[in-house]
Amino acid sequence: MFFRNIVRLAVAGAAVLSISIFSTADVRAEANRDALVAALNEHVVPKIREWAQHPVALIALKAQNKRHVGLTEEKIIEMDKVWRAERKQDVQPLIAQLFGSPLSTYLTRIQAGSLGLYSEIFVMDAVGLNVGLSNVTSDYWQGDEGKWQKTFKVAPDAVFIDEPEAHDETKTQRVQINMTIADPETNEALGAITVEVNLTEFARRFALAGII
Hints:
Blueprint: E1 6-12, E2 16-22, H1 29-43, H2 45-52, H3 55-67, H4 73-86, H5 93-99, H6 102-113, E3 118-124, E4 130-133, H7 146-149, E5 159-161, E6 165-167, E7 172-182, E8 189-198, H8 199-208
Antiparallel strand pairs: 1-2, 3-4, 3-8, 5-7, 6-7, 7-8
């Protein structure tokens, strides 16, 4: 069932990329996934790596990691429950605190400037808690999910591209690109970043102009 309404990417030569979105029974899922991952690695991953090394991201990560030294899993789960409860309330002090940070402002500007290419961006600290975000995430703690476990827990330069999923409300295909954020001076892993890419828009822009 992988890749229903799949994104198929064909690379012509070294620099020209053509992408089409379609559904067909005779397409090999793994071949399409390989092409998709190659295109995202070439055209999107470098941009994300650049954002992740911005001073506002590094400063926010180091500060929160320092505050969270010794944080127990029990306390993390408690904070996550508070976040989930706040999402259903009018008063949201924890969520508001994160949204008011310079890092969240920076990520929100990136998302807005992409004009629909990126549908969500958030940064996680060394225990998997949100540090900055462009949208309210469903939970505060990402440490039990692949976006953190397959990046921060793996290597300072790890990249994990998840499987594409259909977004029913907008009738689009989306995929999350996740990577470790490392200190550029020490190469120590500080946290991780997740960027959700609208694959339908990604394909449209390449079809029109070959750029994103």
